[in-house]
Amino acid sequence: MTASALEFKPESANSLMKEVMERSGQNLTACYQCRRCAAGCPVGEETGFVTPDLLIRMVAFGDREQALNNQLVWKCVSCYTCGTRCPNDIQTARITETIKKMSKEAHLEALNHKVAHFHKSFTDAGLGRGRVNEMAFMTFYEIKNTITEIKKLNFNNIYKELKQQSKLGLSLHKLKRMHFGFQSAKGRKELKRLYKMQDKIRG
Questions:
Q1: Which of 75, 127, 140, 175 has the fewest Cβ atoms within 10 Å of its own Cβ atom?
Q2: How is residue 186 annotated by DSSP?
Q3: For the residues of 65-79, what is the DSSP string, one character each?
C-alpha cells in the first residue's frame, strides 16, 4: 500500500497543530522527521503506510481528514516505543490518543470497530463501580461487536469471535484470572461527574 500525497493546507495547519499540541501536551514542532519512531513502531506493518512521523506530518500540513482517518490512530497500542526512541521526547502515543478522541467528537466512523468497542466497553464497565469487572467488560464488548457484525451480515465473524473468546475466558478462569464478583471503589460519584463534565466540554 502506498501513501497518498499530503496536501499542505495553510488555512487549517496552524489551528490543527495548535489543537493537537494543547490537547496532547506534546511539542510537534520539535519533530524533524528523523523517523526513529517509525523504525521502532511494533504495529507499523499493520497500519499500511502511516507511521508516527507521518501522522505528525499530516497534522503539521493541516490535513485533518487524513490525520483523523488512518489505521495508526486505531491500532496504536500505546507501548511508547516511539517516545523512548525520539531524540526530542515526543510521545506520539499521546498524539494518537488525542486524535482518536477528536475523531469520536467529529462522529467519524471508526476504522477498526473492535478497538472502538473495546475502549467504550472498558469505560462503561468502570464507571458503574469504579473498578472494571472482567465479565461485565467483555460482555459489553461482545454485545457491541456482535451488533456491528450483524449489521454487516458477517455471521461467520461472529461465530469465530465468540468461539475464540469463550476459549480465552475458560483459560483465564482456570488460571483464576477471570473474576465473577464485583468490587467497588470509593469516589464513584466524582468519577461519573468528571466523565459528564468531559462530555459537556466536547459538546
A1: 175
A2: S
A3: HHHHS-HHHHH----
